Amino acid sequence: MTAPEALSDASAKPLAAPAATSWRDGLAVYLQPRVLIVLLLGFSSGLPLALSGSTLQVWMKEAGVDLGTIGLLALIGTPYTLKFLWAPLVDALHVPLFTQVFGRRRGWLLLSQLLLIAAIVVLAVADPARSPWFAAFAALLVATASSTQDIVVDAFRVESLPESEQAAGMASYVAAYRVGMLVSTAGALFIVSGFESAGLARPSAWMWGYMVMATLVVIGIVTSLAATEPVQSRGAEAATHTQNAAERVLHAALGAFSEFLSRKDALAALAFVVLFKFTDAFSGTMTAPFVIDLGFSKVDYAAIVKGVGLAATLIGGFAGGFVARRYSLATSLWIGGVLQAVANLSFSWLAHVGVDQWALALAITAENFTSAIGTVIFVAYLSALCRNPLHTATQYALLTALAAVGRTYLSSGAGYIAKAVGWQVFFVICVLVAIPSLILLLWLQRRGHFDELGPVRV
Predict the structure, then answer these.
(1) CB count in 10 Å sphere of residue 311
(2) Predicted confidence (pLDDT) per residue in 241-259, tens digit
(3) CB–CB of 380/329 below 8 Å?
(4) Of 193, 224, 309, 393, which has the highest C-beta tally within 10 A?
(5) What's the pLDDT score for residue 101?
(6) Whether pLDDT at 144 is above 90
(7) 3-state DSSP call for residue 275?
(8) How crowded is the C-beta side of 420, counted as CA atoms within 13 Å?
(9) Is the pLDDT score of 115 beyond 70?
(10) How many CB atoms lie within 10 A of CB 89?
């Protein structure tokens, strides 16, 4: 047996389940140094997303760029969808000097963060009014560096946290990611407005606003320096040190597919990955049109859907961490899957009630809270599927790309269905579309799928 094969075999062995923990223990896990490192990396991952998205759109609108060009900015998000294509490079290639000094994962983390700072600075000095396409190119560089950082952070999280801390790490990551996004949207706009109030011209205010965002990436760099290289990553490095770069890339790319597809019921597991969050994606696609169509104002939408919704998401994320830590993975998936589906009925109730801010707040709280629970547990499941440190980044990027299929493609007809049946019935249908994933969950459970992952309490 070769060294990579031995490492793969060892990483696939089931782990013993720890005893059930109390709520006090569940809270204490969030203060573990490894979890705090993942939390700060979550902020670093969430920060750049809006800088090449919604915040840039506001900048371009104020710069007088036409709406058609602004609409095309959605294509800048392509690297986030296609990041699995270069994930094998992250798994396999060494970064000169960085890998030798900091290790396999931390080396890539630091490189991606330095590139991210450089890309944001380039975007800051761009002038959308004079050259919108150069600004778009700079934004594409930001998205590419950001998605590369995401690849490494996902792999680092999976490899560095023990099973007992995976769900807490994911909950912390999701919460900090949302905070990072908030800083680069509302925070960036407040900073730009502050610079304008101080007397700076609008183009200069935007430039310095983006410069401030670039300096905040330093939080991720300091975190990477303070972190320690995962033991699994060091083992993978030792197992492949005799291979050349091309061999390592080929092994990471092909091994990620072959190792996963060789598992029992692999195709059913992949179908489950596609469908588990479909109920959320199907209803989420129509949330904004539903709220506005019902008669709520844009202010109501911003304050309640975004403001109250963010708070519910953060709380739900930590609640999901508690659930996943307390119960087995299969049981946690049942809890998350049922809750996120049934919560859609709150929107059916809201459609019956009509324009009522308190009812909207209650419905949004129920939906976002349960959705966050489902998300944390689902990502814990994805993490459990990616135990081989030889290609953690590649497998995780592939699985998250599959999970996006429901959001991107299967949900595309939601508007036509809502128009045909009305809002109350539509959200009942959103509950029903969860049934295939729950049937798959039951089938996989009876086939011993979760036993093969190990009797793990996440």
Answers:
(1) 14
(2) 555 556 666 666 666 667 7
(3) yes
(4) 393
(5) 86
(6) yes
(7) helix
(8) 6
(9) yes
(10) 18
Tokens of 109: 């983390």
Radius of gyration of the chain (CA): 22
| String of DSSP letters for 293-361 | HHT--HHHIIIIIIIIHHHHHHHHHHHHHHHHHHSBHHHHHHHHHHHHHHTTHHHHHHHHH-S-HHHHH
CA distance 390 to 251: 8
CB 223 within 8 A of CB 40: yes
* Sole residue written with tokens 């469908």: 275
Q: Quick one: what percent of the chain has pLDDT higher than 70?
A: 82
Burial class (CB in 10 A: 0-12, 13-18, 19+), 352: exposed
What six digits make up the tokens of 115? 């590139």
Whether the CB-CB separation of 378 and 404 falls below 8 Å is answered with: no
Rounded distance between C-alpha atoms, residue 116 and residue 137, angstroms = 14
Q: For position 11, what pLDDT does the model report? A: 41
What's the number of CA atoms in the CB half-sphere (13 Å) around residue 126? Answer: 26
192, β-bridge pairs: none
CA 87, 391, 9: angle at the middle one, nearest 5?
170
Question: What is the chain's percent helix, strand, coil content, to nearest 5?
Answer: 80, 0, 20
Give me the DSSP letters along 105-130. Answer: HHHHHHHHHHHHHHHHHHHHH--TTT
Residue 252 has what pLDDT?
62
pLDDT of 5 higher than 70: no
- Tokens in use for 367? 């939906």
Nearest one of 252, 259, 257 to 92, comparing CA atoms:
252
Report residue 212 CA to chain centroid gap.
24
| 13: confidence class by pLDDT, cuts 50, 70, 90 | very low
Nearest to 304 by CA among 350, 241, 271, 344: 350
Smallest Cα–Cα separation from 80: which of 159, 145, 177, 132? 145
Amino acid at 277: K
| Nearest Cα residue to 384 out of 14, 44, 19, 116 | 14
Q: Is 225 helix (H, G, I), strand (E, B) or coil?
A: helix
Q: Which tokens go with 187?
A: 């925070």
